[in-house]
Amino acid sequence: MDVVGIIPARYGSTRLKAKALADIMGKPMIQHIYERAKKASVLDELIVATDDERIKEAVDSFGGKAVLTAKQHTSGTERLAEVVFDLDVKIVINIQGDEPLIHSMMINELAYTLMDDSSLLMATLKHKIKDSEDFKNPNVVKVITDKNNFAIYFSRSFIPNMLRKKLNYWIDVYKHIGVYAYTKDFLLTFKNLTPLQLEKAEALEQLRALEHGYKIKVIETQYDTISVDTKKDLIAVTKLLQNS
Question: β-pairing, 122-128 with 174-183?
């Protein structure tokens, strides 16, 4: 098969325990993510990778596909790598297990980016920030890219930092949306790379690729998401879904 989507979902989330099973309009959050991702026309298969039988049972109950993975994984990337290791697949899409507003076109955009350019190993998404509160929010990761739309840096800080009073133009600031596409071979390589200083300082796993000299293609998307890390996030997502 060409493209598989994997949704890593662990039970013991630090800030919001069992958030994959959090109720949103009568459905667990993982079901919202699965049903939205399933609409992506490019996917040959969609799998939830979880460390907990309760999440697997929830996915099974709504007709989704889930597999149990080792509990000792420290990241969703490691969970992905375990699932795809024995799969005959070319491209792997990492669909975050806390993004109930994921749009199927995000998945399509990423997959086709790698399918159309065999030189690319990894790709992700950005969205123009419109809410000024997001500029200073460390939970909203920012990304800057070069002229060819390859990532230069990701940060929880405000980047690029500008002395706006001295500028006669505006530089757009972009939010990083943490959905990724990898070639299978690179995903397995990436999983084995040693975390270095920038990744540890920012607590951003994608910096590992940049620190080791690999390129990440960044695609601008018109769609936005909210990562559910707190009860406040859960309330905000619920309101948006109710009004959609």
Answer: antiparallel
CATH architecture for residues 3-243: Alpha-Beta Complex (3.90)
Count the helix, strand and coil residues of the chain and give each as a percent rounded to the nearest 5: 35, 25, 45
> Tokens 């990492």 — which residue?
94
pLDDT tens by residue, the chain, 244 residues:
899 999 999 887 766 778 899 899 999 999 999 999 999 999 999 999 999 999 999 999 999 999 999 888 888 898 999 999 999 999 999 999 899 999 999 999 999 999 999 999 999 999 999 888 888 889 899 999 999 999 999 999 989 876 555 556 668 899 999 999 999 999 999 999 999 999 999 999 999 999 999 999 999 999 999 888 888 888 888 888 888 7
Q: How far apart are CA 43 and CA 91, in angstroms?
A: 10
